[in-house]
Predict the 3D structure of the following.
Amino acid sequence: MNDANSQSPAPKPVGIEAGRLSFSYGPKRVFDNVQFVIPAGEVWGLIGRSGIGKTTLLNVILGLFAPDAGSVATAFGQVNGPGRIRGVVFQEESLLWWLTIIENALFPNHWNRDDASLHRAKTLLDAAGLGGCADLHPKELSAGMRRRVELVRALLIDQEYFVADEPFSAVDVQTKLALYSVWRDLRKANPRTGIISTHDPLEAAVTCDAVIALKGVMDSAAVEIFRVPERFRKEEPLQTAFSDPFVSKLVEIIL
């Protein structure tokens, strides 16, 4: 006989769940009542004008900042501090210049690497077009190549989750377009649940499954969510994507 007063435990999220998040810097409310659920295996883009709070929201998701209200959860439980999500690419370069590329890709486990992890790192570097660079140092690579190493490292360090703060912003347009292709290849071989912030609506459309738009509402930001149309899943969408109405809509939202 079932106990009428018993309750089943709430199911754990299998992706990334943000529940009614609010955050302030002193008296300044940055965002309020932000909520979304990123399904397992999907990567969502986070767009918004400069200074609206994209990086702050990522820091809350990573557990680096504590929200004023609300919660973040993954399949491993509630995020109460850093460490739940370890696959991170920050805006600033973070490769260690005295380590080789393969050592950077495996960091912080580069000293205790086993054959399996070494093979996986080399496989991902090959997928990123860096197969011949394993024994080089960061100063011997271009900015775009170093960014690829950071993407590979983030995928190696966390088997489930991925968070990137404007990972394609510090390179020229030609390199950026090449990185989009690399990112697709890496995602196919290594599915992750994650979020990528960007100022560029086109970038969000061609690299992500859905887009979270941070919009200014009164004195703080709120979100609106859009699924990316299937036409952007094609191998070469950039030929027409610049004038695509979906991209134009995202541009209007963040202006």
The CA atoms of residues 29 and 208 lie 28 Å apart. The beta strands are 16-25, 28-38, 43-47, 69-74, 77-78, 88-89, 161-165, 193-198, 210-217, 220-227. Residues 101-157 form one domain. Helices lie at 54-61, 101-106, 115-127, 143-157, 173-189, 201-207, 238-241, 245-254.
